[in-house]
Amino acid sequence: MTALVILGCDSVMSATITGGYAKNPWLRPIRDHMNWLRELRESPVRDVGREPEPDKRTLRRGFLSVRKGLTADDVRETAAALAVRALELPELAGARTVAAYVSVGSEPGTLALLDALRARGVRVLLPVLLPDNDLDWGAYTGADSLAEVRHGGRMALLEPAGERLGPQAVQEADAVLLPGLAVDARGMRLGRGGGSYDRVLARLERSGADPALVVLLYDTEVVGRVPEEAHDRPVHAVVTPSGVRRFR
């Protein structure tokens, strides 16, 4: 049986794994993750008696490096577990419209969850990246409704190929599923740095909409603390393959 113990630090968390790598393939990269966290903690301090706090860029590099160590089988198995956990959320059980996204590469997989929501009769909205990094939205009607789109030199994204509903369409969502690289004990999310979802969250706040905000992550990406800026907004819950943690 796998025992996962999370210990809080000032800015990061350490994970101790006792066995279970064979039963849980997605835990394989954790040794690398632990080494990376240890290097951050043991790096030279700026002030005597004070540990340095890694900035967002450093943390992003570390989490992305760990994700690159996942195999296609790891991603597929965790996607199935993630869908089961997410579908248990009351916020999704009662939702009529959910704004979500299509995972790419080694992100926690979302397609199984999107299809399960559609099977429930939920209207699923997916983002379309605009030139200014804002997000338009379109309806998901199945895998054949997606088109691969490459924005400049970035990774190709899977976006809805149908009608564009406008950036304000997200305000109709009862729940918004957010991508990220980490979330901390306060619910503060570390994104990739493009700012697209910062705009979404600001738009929701301005409109007075109050959907459930849920970030989908791997177990090792729930950490003690991530740096925050004035525009950052906390999420309400995080779903990982092993469970759910709420922040309100």
From TrEMBL:
Molecular function in Gene Ontology: 5-formyltetrahydrofolate cyclo-ligase activity; ATP binding; metal ion binding
Keywords: ATP-binding, Ligase, Magnesium, Metal-binding, Nucleotide-binding
EC annotation from Swiss-Prot or TrEMBL: 6.3.3.2
Cofactor names: Mg(2+)
Signal peptide range in chain numbering: none
InterPro entries: FTHF_cligase, FTHF_cligase-like_sf, NagB/RpiA_transferase-like
Chemical reaction(s) catalysed: (6S)-5-formyl-5,6,7,8-tetrahydrofolate + ATP = (6R)-5,10-methenyltetrahydrofolate + ADP + phosphate
GO biological process: folic acid-containing compound biosynthetic process; tetrahydrofolate interconversion
Top-level taxon: Bacteria
Pfam family name, one: 5-FTHF_cyc-lig
Cross-referenced NCBIfam families: MTHFS_bact
Family designation: Belongs to the 5-formyltetrahydrofolate cyclo-ligase family.
Protein name in UniProt: 5-formyltetrahydrofolate cyclo-ligase
Taxonomic source organism: Streptomyces triticiradicis
